[in-house]
Amino acid sequence: MINLKKEYHNIEKIFKYLQLEEIEELGIMTFLNRDAIYVKAKKKSYLVNIKSLKNQPHDYQKTKITKIKSLEFFDDNGIHSIFPMKFNEKYFINYRNKDYEIYKYVLTEHKKISEINDKLLKKLANTQAIIHNLKTKLSLPSPYKEIKTKLEKKIKKLSKYSPKGSAKVYENVYQLDEIIKEYNKSIKYANQSLILGYDNYDLENIEWIKDYMYIIDYENCTSINPAVSLAEAAYYFSRNDHRLNFDTYKKYLSSYIKKAGSLSYDYKEALIVSQGKLLQQLEIEILNSIDEKNDYSSEIEEIVEEIKVYHNNIEKLNDIYLDIVKK
To answer: Does residue 151 share a domain with residue 14?
Structure first.
C-alpha cells in the first residue's frame, strides 16, 4: 500500500534534484495490475513506481541495469518499447533505501485475445522473430527451472483445503508426474541454447497505441531458448477460453518462420519445456492453497485440464511446425 502523504515529500525532493517540472498534483492509479503514483506537473505527466530495496538479492541492482540496457538494445534494433513511456524520458534513482522509477506518462491500451486479428498476430510473430534473430548472448538467469514438487506428498495436505482440486490432482497424478519428469529432463538441453530474449511474451506485457505495439517491463528481459519462447507464445496467442485454435497457431508459426527461418533446436523438445509455465502455475496454486488454507479447487482443476489438453496435443503441434518448415 502506497503512503501518498509520505511519498509526496520524497518525490518532491527527487523532482527538484532531477530538475523536473514543479509538481501540481499527486494521485494513485492502477497501471499494469499494480499501484503506481501519478504525478501531474506543469507541462507533463509522470508515473512513479516504487520498490523497497530491503531483502533484495545482492546482485539486484546489477541485474536491473543489465535488463534495462537489454530493453534499450531491443529499442535500438527496431523492437519498440514503452516503460511505460518512450525511452527519451526515464529516470531511475535510489532514495532512502527505495528504488524510484519515473516515467513520462503515455496513454496506451491493452488488447484482449479476441481483439487480435490476423494483421496484429503477424505483427506479434514478426516482433518476436526480430528479437530472436538478434542472437545476442548475455549472462542473465534462465527462466527454465526444475520443478521439485512431489505431488503425491502434497495431495493429503491439499485435500484439507481444496478437496475437489486434490481429487483432480490424485485422479491425474501419474500423468502429471510423468509430464514433470519429462519437463525436468528437457530443460537441461534447453538451457544449453540460450540467447537474450523476452520472457512472458503475452498481452499482459504488450501495450498498444492504435496498431503500434510496444513491449514493456524490463524484468522480462532474460536468457531464453528461442524455440521454447516461440512455443509458449504460439500457444498463448492461439488460446481463447482455454481452447486451442490450430489455425491461429499455424498462422503465428508461419509468420515467425517466414521472418526468422526454421529453428536450430528440436521443436518437440521445445514444446515439452514450454509446458513449464502451466506446471509452475499448478505448483503455485497447490502451495497457495496449503499455505493460505484456502480452497483453490476451481483454479487447480482448470490448470490440470489445461496441462492435459496441451500435453495431449504436443505431437499435433509439432506436426504443424514440421509441415510449415517443409513448404
So the answer is: no
